[in-house]
Design brief:
The protein is of the alpha/beta class and 318 residues long. Helix content is 43%, strand content 15%. It contains 13 helices and 7 strands. The chain has a 7-stranded mixed β-sheet with strand order 3-2-1-4-5-7-6, sandwiched between helices. α2 crosses α3 (29-43) and α3 (29-43) packs across α13. The chain binds S-adenosylmethionine.
Length: 318
Amino acid sequence: MDYSTKISERMWNQPDKGELEAEREKTFIDDIVQKSHIEKELLENLDGIETVFDGGAGCGRFSILLAKHGMRVTHFDISRPMIDKARELAEKEGVTDRITFVQGALEDLSAYEDRSFDMVISFDAPISYTYPHQERTISELVRIAGKRIMISVSSRLGALPYLANPIQKNQFILDKESKDSWVQWCLESREQMVADFTFRKDALMKTGETGLFCDVEETRKAYDNGEAPWSISYHFMPEELYGILDKNGVKNIQLAGPGAFARTIPNEILVKIMNDPEQKRDFLEFCHMYDSNPYVCGLGKDNLFAKGEIAERREAVK
Ligand SMILES: C[S@@+](CC[C@H](N)C(=O)[O-])C[C@H]1O[C@@H](n2cnc3c(N)ncnc32)[C@H](O)[C@@H]1O
């Protein structure tokens, strides 16, 4: 097993991971926008789809949704706590009979034959955590897809502004009274992060070139010291992601940048919109339209979304 897999496994195996991920949309507005974009895409593209492979399915945000819409879903994830949480939520929704839970790493999909599933999905960056195998992982996901593929990966252009804005998550806090530990950490450390901040053009330039936001060697050392560092995550450029899908024979490729519109709006306004159901519905619909414009796709908040069709008879990979 290579380093990236081991690091991802340790990080996502932390006991409270499933619980925390399942709460994201209750606490952060950017997560509401991102998941809403994906949900709309999924529900509008279910024609001819009966079976789905969800790679890095987490606590079941989309596998359970699709099972509720009658799909048979393979919920595949590296982390036991995430799968346990997903199973608990699937039981509550009464859909466990339509979901097969599989613990495994996206780096090895050899158990699945070509075109095993009508649709293959993988959202909120599991592919990025397979670095340095991210390109092969996409190729494998395309291989096991019969009709359609939808993925979202870490976005380089979208994430670079973080390096000049350590308090970016504060903009998206839905409820400042929330007990969520991340919300409280964002609020408590705001002033310190501003005080400690220096604009470092060299760091931005380097990350812009490599697509890596961490030092790979430092992360490996932390792992070897028994820590659970953040996974090494590869951030894609839009044309790069398009090119990989195209090379693997995917047709009608469309990219989007969920969160591009919302990131222009201050917290007070976002909270106001979210607290009015009618405005919230209209806002999320508008975000979907704006964020689907190819000219803004790179600036999606932290994910670059892509969807495409698998050709009837897949052409040989160029
Ligand atoms: C941010 S969560 C996204 C969950 C879900 N797809 C969603 O959109 O809500 C990322 C998930 O990817 C899983 N993951 C990370 N690296 C993986 C790998 N190499 N193979 C399979 N799953 C992985 C994690 O365990 C975690 O559940």
